[in-house]
Amino acid sequence: MMFGSTGCDQSLYDVIKEYDDTHPIETTQEAVNAVQGHNDELSDDDDDESTFTFSKAMADVSYDHSDRPNHFVAIHVSDPQIVAQVAAVQAHIRGKDARLAACFMPTSVLHVTIAMLTLGNQEEMSDCVRALHDARFRLALHERPPLELEIDGIGNFNQRVIYARPRRNESFLLFIQQLQDLLLNAGVHVHRSFDYVPHVTILKMSRPMCKTLRSYYVDQATYVDRQADYFGKQLCDRAYLCEISEMRNAEGFYRSLTDVSLLPDTHEMHKDSFEEEL
Question: Helix, strand or coil for residue 111?
Fold first, then answer.
């Protein structure tokens, strides 16, 4: 998942690029993968042929990816108005630079991530499934007003990820904190961030695209005219426990181990396919 950050205007990528412009050094692809990282739920594992130049300090570090997230909990953004508006913004960006179309998030997988997880085996997956279903009652979701996100405007993470921006919603942020606490208490490996920024990814720069454009960044001119666009409201009706993979379900959304209702006064009779296979 991609999180926002605070601090100076110069990003890590700016510092690295500035160094590399004057100190070109060839590095290993392993170091490249570690720096580029797992920036969103869609990884760039199929981009291994790309090679970049980074500083020697970064190249000499060895990394352990065994702790890398492999599942996430998300709200599926499926409101027709929002989906149509995202498609319109993508069409606008394509009109400015057709090459960026390869980096678009398919509208069938639009989502807001609420937790990133590492589930190492079948037992851990089962524990997480049970904890999510328990959450409905432990957090008294069936007694709370429905959660709704209003998507208004466009933001970016270091000009590498362009996203539709939900308005700040204290009830939603409290729900995320409580859900993550519950999962942690159930023994689920949750990757927490204190600078969490809810977002709906529209475009994510891939390593091959960085190579094609000879830049790490999306040109702001490709979307600046749409920054104030209003997208609409998304009812947070269900939470999905999704795999981080290229697999999709029949509707084109991520393949999930389970999903649970977040709406009040509903009876959860859902039995997930994962539990049926155990």
Answer: strand
